[in-house]
Amino acid sequence: MTGKKVAKIRLGGKDRTFHFGMGFLGLFIENTTTTMESLEEDMSKNPFKVLPELMYYSLVYGFVRNDIKPDFSKYDVSDWIDENGGVDSASVKSFIDLLGKSMNPDLPKEKTVKTVGKQKK
User: Fold this and answer.
1) How many Å from the N-terminal Cα to the C-terminal Cα in the chain?
2) pLDDT digits (tens, 9 = 90+) for 77-111
3) Exposure of 109 by Cβ count < 10 A (0-12 exposed, 13-18 middle, 19+ buried)?
4) Which residue has the higher pLDDT, 11 or 108?
């Protein structure tokens, strides 16, 4: 990982810069049929569509924010994932882990709920 919201992951034969955070997620949602509310469900229904799209828009965000046309397509990203061992590859697992951390960076490991005042019976 190179920064809090940026990571280098080897994919397609080279180290590529993936962006995490609001900008990439906004781009992803704007250009796909997935919403924040449906992301988890869409991912479990068809990870072979959603994962490459997430990774594509994470990569593309770095180009878009600098007004540069990317030299790859979402189909290239799918091919790179396949060539690298598929959705169970180390690259994809790293991406998923970093995505999860970027979306929930400050959540405690265990959730504790405290009640205040009298409890109703």
Assistant:
1) 50
2) 999 999 999 989 999 999 999 998 887 755 444 44
3) exposed
4) 11
Residue 31 is which amino acid? N
pLDDT of residue 5: 86
35 C-beta neighbours (distance < 10 Å), count? 10
Q: Measured between alpha carbons, how far is residue 113 from residues 56, 108, 110, 116, 121 in Å?
A: 38, 12, 10, 10, 18
Answer positive or negative: Cα dihedral of 87, 75, 4, 41: negative
- Dihedral of the CA atoms 17, 97, 43, 65 (nearest 10)? -30
| Contact (CB, 8 A) for 77 and 55 | yes
Q: What is the pLDDT of residues 39-85, one digit of tens each?
A: 999 999 999 999 999 999 999 999 999 999 999 999 999 999 999 99
